[in-house]
Amino acid sequence: MKRIGILTSGGDAPGMNAAIRAVVRKAIFEGMEVYGINYGYAGLVAGDIRKLSVSDVGDKIQRGGTFLYSARYPEFGSEEGQLKGIEQLKKFGIEGLVVVGGDGSYMGARALTKHGFPAIGLPGTIDNDIPGTDFTIGFDTSINTVLESIDRIRDTATSHERTFIIEVMGRGAGDIALWSGIAGGAEQVIIPEVDFNMEEVAAKIQEGRDRGKKHSLIVVAEGVMSGNEFADELAKYGDFHARVTVLGHVQRGGSPTAKDRVLASRFGVRAVELLKEGKGGLCIGIRDNKIIASDIVDTLENGKHRIDLDLYDLSKQISF
């Protein structure tokens, strides 16, 4: 394989640029050409494709977001859209494709694979909810961004003796809430994978007050309910002087951490190695600090992201 393409799709994640850089530089090192596809699958179908050089990825590793841009393109779910994309890849002489993104992006790569076009997925999403890997590109940066906010909120919570409800991202996965909640010393972490009882939440806040605690921090994953809905429900069990902070898209931005830069680089290099060998239909991940490659069809159809329940139990034991 002498010519490959790369695109980023779905929600942006810090470290995507580091992954693009690694793919481009490793490919050039191996004597291959790399073509960047702007705006994900939408750009693929439109033929918004350009050759990337070493200089194109210079001064990019420290930048958040993705310089190839991203766009949602549900039309790629149809066979017509997929075949149009393959037609464009063949037009540019591209023999294999690297897709950086989340679950929806993987589905596009899987579709290409089923049509016989070699595609490899790299997990890029702050939610850390992709099966087949312990960690995704962008997750570490996101939880550190959230942690900085939690530390700041704690200062004002203490000053005013209030309960602060912090809503973080994570529709179907509570990893951001769990990791940042433990690291930030939150009194309670509410995630979609584990049921909770609001009466017990209120009782725990009151117990803390009774022993002289000045504040409470509750981290809620958006997949459970919004922070404002949570505050309204909590108010039914007493006046806890609750205030809500919705962190929103600030969790996606910013310069990637060292861990995300290294992880993205390892993923990108492995993707190029596999394509050079003529292999596709795979997704890259990390397990026990080892880079692995799994069948993308099997991973999507049979794999499932699982929250670390041991970590959740730990949070219950040390947060009160």
Automatic annotation (TrEMBL):
GO biological process, any: fructose 1,6-bisphosphate metabolic process
CDD domains, A to Z: Bacterial_PFK
Residues forming the catalytic site: 127 (proton acceptor)
Subcellular location: Cytoplasm
Pfam families: PFK
Residues binding substrate, per UniProt: 125-127, 162, 169-171, 222, 243, 249-252
Superkingdom of the source species: Bacteria
All residue ranges annotated as the Phosphofructokinase domain in the record: 3-275
Residue numbers binding ADP: 21-25, 154, 185-187, 211, 213-215
Assigned keywords, A-Z: Allosteric enzyme, ATP-binding, Cytoplasm, Glycolysis, Kinase, Magnesium, Metal-binding, Nucleotide-binding, Transferase
Catalytic activity field: beta-D-fructose 6-phosphate + ATP = beta-D-fructose 1,6-bisphosphate + ADP + H(+)
Family label: Belongs to the phosphofructokinase type A (PFKA) family. ATP-dependent PFK group I subfamily. Prokaryotic clade 'B1' sub-subfamily.
Name this protein carries in UniProt: ATP-dependent 6-phosphofructokinase
Organism: Isobaculum melis
